[in-house]
Amino acid sequence: MWKASEASPEVDLYGEVYTSQAFWDTHEELQNQPDPNPGEPLEKVVVAMMFASDSTHLTSFGATQLWPCYLLFGNESKYRQSQPSQRLCHQIAYFEKLSDKFTNYLKMRNNGKLPLDAFITHCTRELFHSQWSALLDDELLDAMKNGVVLMCPDGHRRRFYPRIFTYSADYPEK
Question: InterPro entries this protein is in (predicted)?
Fold first, then answer.
């Protein structure tokens, strides 16, 4: 909370994921859920997952590209996350793009012409979503529902619940 002067109203200031209203709402919702193991009630912790991806050119000339996916945790300060020496940005996957083989096959099947751009966009989107389906596997979905129990450095066991807070990316369908 911040006030410009005594007479002005209080204003909420947000600068980190862990101070955002979305984080606090998620925390509150999590605390109100029943424990998955009532015989072992543990402190519940929100793990704020932040994903980012952007196409990267590998050479100064040519068309060789990679499309990495990165994971950061919103429980960490953005100032620490922005320091490469902290190693808080984790490269977790490389997304594939439609291959030349696929577009060549489409041309062959369509008398030397590519189908409409809308069709290529559809195929690109479907490929992208199928890759995200592989990342959001049953193990992660179970962890999101039931949490993962970990021993913390202070010697206490806590149940951590991953939650996806942000995804920042270029526009892959084009």
Answer: Plavaka
Indicate whether 8 belongs to any domain. no
Residue 87: HSE in the Cβ half-sphere, 13 Å Cα cutoff: 0
- C-alpha dist (Å) from residue 85 to 20, 47, 73, 81, 143: 26, 22, 16, 9, 29
Domain that holds residue 124: 17-169
Domains in the chain: how many in total? 1
More confident residue, 125 or 60: 125
Return the half-sphere exposure (C-beta side, CA atoms, 13 A cut-off) of residue 107: 8
- Could you read off the pLDDT of 42-83 as tens digits, one per residue? 999 999 999 999 887 777 776 677 889 999 999 999 999 999
d(CA 17, CA 78): 8
> Would you say the pTM of this structure is higher than 0.70?
yes
